[in-house]
Structures are given as structure tokens and as C-alpha cells.
Amino acid sequence: MSRSLIAILRGLTPAEAVDVGQALIDAGVDKIEVPMNSPDPLDSIGALAQTFGDRALIGAGTVLSVEQVDGVASVGGKLIVSPNCDTEVIAHTAKLGLESWPGIFTPTEAFAALKAGATGLKLFPGVMAGTTGLAALRAVLPEGTQVYAVGGAGPENFGDWFKASADGFGIGSALYKPGMSVDDIATRAAQIVSAYDAALA
Question: For domain 5-200, is the CATH number 2.60.200.40?
């Protein structure tokens, strides 16, 4: 079962990438982004894509330029996540056949992102919009639009977000922080997956 959870590994190093990726996939998290402001992000993305690309969706977060999209594609990444709605980045990502998940906060940004070819929308920061903000936004979005809540969504409130129509979540510091042991990451991933499954039940 593939869950609508994206692991955000901000600060990941290439040396730990494969071990961390294995722990996440074993726990049931098979969508992984390495933010571009991590150390040597393309090395980490390349290692993850080479090792797990056949069974996980691997890519980059905090992607701010067309050049960065090309860099991610060149190492085998298939997922492009941004904190903002940059229609050039979205259109270029779609042209390359990669998944595009731009950050949006308003209906104007949401519709601009979809028009440019976004795969889905990242409601960010989710904590500012809240579940009521998502519910209001959902009323005007085209049917079937995928919206992931990021920032303020986690195991303690997955159920509330699902009720507000969230399709999935990006999980950062609740899952990974630089310096964490692989065992700790595995434990956190298992807890998050368990909370996600319980909220869906």
C-alpha cells in the first residue's frame, strides 16, 4: 500500500541517504524529498533514486528554479516539490514528465499552479490555513485536485485534516532532523504510518 505521505529530509547527507531511505520504505513511506538546501542534495537524491527508484518516488523539495529541476532530473529524481507557486518551474517539471507539487496558499495560486500543469498542490504553511482554510479552498477547486497539507499537519491531527478533505501530507521534522539515528527515524516513521492508517480507518 502506497500512502499519501511525503518524507521531507531537510539536512540529509549523502552518506546517510540510503540507510534513511531504507528505514522509511520499510516503515511504509515511499515518497521521499530531499530539500535543495540540504548538503549536496543531488548526491543524496541520486543515491536514493538509484537504490529505490523502482519502488519509491524520489525527488527534491525547496525547488526554486528551472535549473534545479533539470539537476534533479539528471540524477533520476521524479518528484519536484516547491514552497511557492512558480509557473515556470511547474511547466518545466511537467514538460519533463516529473511530478510537480508547488506550494500554494490562495485560490489564485492554486488555479495558476493547476493551469501550469501541477500534479497536485502543497498547502503551505498548513498551520496558517488550518483545516477550515482547506475546506473553504476545496469548495472552488476542480474535482479530483490532490491537496497535501504541509507544516502543521502530523500524527496528532491527521484525522482532522482528512475530514477537511486533505489527500495527503508532507512530514518534516516530526520524521527527520539532522543527527537522528536510523533507528530513531525508523521508529518515528512507524508511528506516523500507524497514525495515518488509524486516521483513514
Answer: no
Q: Which residues, in sequence order, are bridge partners of residue 79?
A: 59, 99
User: Cell 533520476, residue?
Assistant: 76
Residue among 16, 31, 78, 122 flagged as catalytic: 122
DSSP assigned state of 29:
-
33 part of the active site: yes
Domains of the chain, residue spans: 5-200
Q: Are 33 and 177 within 8 A, CB to CB? A: no
Which of these is catalytic: 16, 31, 33, 78?
A: 33
Q: pLDDT tens across 47-85, in order?
A: 999 999 999 999 999 999 999 999 999 999 999 999 999
Q: What is the distance between the alpha carbons of residues 154 and 126, in angstroms, rounded to a whole number?
A: 10
pLDDT category of residue 153 using cuts at 50, 70 and 90: very high
For residue 1, pLDDT beyond 80: no
Q: Are strands 168-171 and 79-81 parallel, antiparallel or unpaired?
A: unpaired
Answering whether pTM is above 0.70, one says: yes
